[in-house]
Amino acid sequence: MSQIFTASADTRLRTVLLAIFFALIAGGLFAGGYMDSSYATLVGWVQNQPVPFSHEHHVGGLGIDCRYCHTTVETSKHAGLPATHICMTCHSQLWTGAPMLAPVRESLASGKPIAWQRVARLPDYVYFDHAIHIARGVPCVSCHGRVDKMPLMARAVALQMQFCLGCHRNPAAALHPPDQVTRMDWSDWNKHPETHKLYGQLMVKTYGIEPAKLDDCNICHR
Amino acid sequence: MTRASALPLSLWLPLCLAGCTGEMSQQPRYDSYEPSALFADGKSLQAPPEGTIARDDPDQTRALATRPPMTLALLERGRERFGIYCTPCHDEAGYGRGTVPARGFPSPPSFHTKRLRQAPASHFVDVITKGHGVMYSYADRVDASDRWAIAAYIRALQLSQNAPLAAAPADERSKLAGRAP
Q1: How many angstroms separate the CA of residue B34 from the nearest CA in chain A?
Q2: Is the pTM of this model over 0.95?
Q3: Domain B61-163, what architecture?
Q4: Considering only alpha carbons, which residue of chain A is nearest residue B28?
Q5: pLDDT at A148 (0 to 100)
């Protein structure tokens, strides 16, 4: 009876197994790297908006508070995107002929909302609520970054689970006075870590926050 | 299950990961603002029909009709709301020199005129509710009790710019005595 396998078959089998092994590792590394890359987390990418609305101009330049436009951020799960007539409280008189604002005027005339491309989004299986974070004094800047320096809106932090958990496990450091949540520049606050550490700890107690429970799966996956 | 049959089965598990994509991230329900093919105007967030009365409308009407008692909490609420919705045009002190008029929006009148000092608080509530000339109504964003809070704060602003010397505490008065006109 003749041999089924040649003499080199064993070596070839080993090489193929080794190749599969490395391919799996490389695949794992690639997937891991991909998950954290800005391509997957969308950090820093801007969307193609129907109107090139600039937060830098309106927030940084004019000093308009977030809540002038994102009206429901204190009271509901959603911050809300501004209705067209909110733009018109100013643009009924300002830049009235600008072609850049044509979609806004069209939207007002037709009643069809402006189709903004969303920037900050979570998958549907995650539950998020703005109101509780605002009531506890977690400033916008900790999740949305320096919005006042964004000519076009881009995601500032990766909205991954580890980001939420990082804070939920140690909320004291994130708490600020609730009446200043929309403030963007906290550099003077951060200059005094000792005093403000105490503030955080005190507020955790005052609000009755239990960090041990804040990372329960069913807080965010319900 | 024996070990021998578990091994080939577990090799299939990674393939199941391929199923962990769309279904859960984009569930078959509408989020706020999501477009919808079900309605002619393409919105999932439908506007209520003409003439709808919201459940809290009677409360709002009542709150609008009765002026709440003046308290520190009311003033503080008023200061915050004034800062959000009014300062872009009327500025922090109420002179009407905000950042938006500086870019070409018609200048609002100063609150520190005889006419507006004598106007009743309900006038400010009315202006917020209905708008005034080129100023739009803020009724959609400032609810009834907040309108009274803003009116109260405007009163405080007016006093701050037009207080008689006698209203200041004694030590302040002596400090100012040298400079007072």
Answers
A1: 10
A2: no
A3: Orthogonal Bundle (1.10)
A4: A124
A5: 94
